[in-house]
């Protein structure tokens, strides 16, 4: 069974035993043995491994993993160092420059955000090579919806950053008024000019955290690694 290595193990223990998840597991066994699937089976739960339930300060919700070779490693919008920075992440970096004056990093790996409490969660956790959204209907949304619901129950305030229609559809699960929801268009080149640029999500997140006595995120940590 899945071993995450932090408090998510206990929180999601029953979820991993449910019929829908066992169907996902069975399907993926076949997929990984017969096709090229991203990310590596060892990286599927990296978002949860890097960012514990109790340590989550900010959630940035993506759609599904990058589907080209070498890109996906289990964190939404992130690619490993040495991989070309994808267009959506380039636009995220542009907004960081406008919002907080951060210079463009030389890489696209967002691990240093995750270790500070930014849960970089995709709504769907796996994908076939070259086929965007190919695993969208296998049940992952039930699993990731449950993660959002569990976070919503937490007493400590959390910032939920929802970019684009897919992420914004999760807003209905964020019902506790002590959390902050920041939503806008997706940073994709197709939609970034429809409200993503100028939305200042990073400074707004930190302002909220600080107001609630929680240390903000050092977004510029990407340039320190």
Mean pLDDT: 96
The N- to C-terminal Cα distance equals 33 Å
> Would you count the extended β strands for me?
6
Described by its quaternary structure, the protein is single chain
Shape verdict? globular
Strands of the widest sheet, in order across it, are 3-2-5-6
Poorly predicted runs of 5 or more residues: none
Describe what you observe in this structure.
The strands form 2 sheets. This protein has a 4-stranded parallel beta sheet with strand order 3-2-5-6. Strands 1-4 form a two-stranded antiparallel ribbon. The chain has helices at residues 8-11, 19-34, 46-50, 87-100, 111-114, 140-152, 164-168, 201-211, and strands spanning 37-38, 58-62, 118-122, 127-128, 159-163, 180-184. It has 8 helices and 6 strands. The longest helix is centred in the first third of the chain and has 16 residues, at 19-34. The model has no long low-confidence stretch (mean pLDDT 96). With 225 residues, it is an alpha/beta fold. The relative contact order is 0.17.
Distinctive features:
single chain; 225 residues; alpha/beta; 4-stranded parallel beta sheet; 8 helices; 32% helix; globular
What is the structure about, briefly put?
By secondary structure, the chain is α/β, with parallel strands linked by helices. Helix content is 32%, strand content 11%. It is globular.
Which helices and strands appear, and what pairs or packs with what?
Blueprint: H1 8-11, H2 19-34, E1 37-38, H3 46-50, E2 58-62, H4 87-100, H5 111-114, E3 118-122, E4 127-128, H6 140-152, E5 159-163, H7 164-168, E6 180-184, H8 201-211
């Amino acid at each position: 069974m899945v071993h995450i290595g932090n408090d998510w193990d206990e929180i999601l223990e029953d979820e991993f035993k449910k019929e829908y998840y066992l169907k996902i597991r069975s399907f993926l066994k076949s997929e990984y043995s017969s096709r090229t699937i991203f990310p590596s089976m060892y990286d599927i739960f990296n978002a949860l491994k890097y960012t514990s339930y109790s340590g989550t300060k900010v959630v940035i919700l993506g759609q599904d993993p990058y589907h080209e070779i070498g890109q996906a490693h289990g964190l939404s919008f992130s690619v490993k160092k040495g991989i070309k920075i994808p267009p959506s992440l380039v636009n995220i970096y542009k907004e960081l420059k406008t919002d907080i004056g951060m210079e463009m990093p030389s890489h696209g790996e967002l691990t240093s955000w995750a270790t500070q409490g930014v849960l970089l969660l995709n709504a769907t956790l796996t994908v076939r090579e070259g086929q965007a959204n190919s695993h969208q209907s296998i049940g992952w949304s039930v699993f990731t919806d449950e993660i959002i619901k569990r976070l919503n129950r937490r007493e400590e305030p959390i910032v939920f950053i929802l970019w684009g229609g897919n992420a914004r559809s999760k807003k209905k699960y964020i019902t506790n008024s002590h959390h902050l929801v920041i939503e806008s268009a997706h940073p994709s080149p197709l939609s970034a000019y429809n409200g993503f640029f100028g939305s200042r999500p990073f400074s707004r997140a930190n302002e909220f955290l600080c107001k609630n006595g929680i240390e903000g995120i050092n977004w510029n940590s990407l340039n320190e690694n």
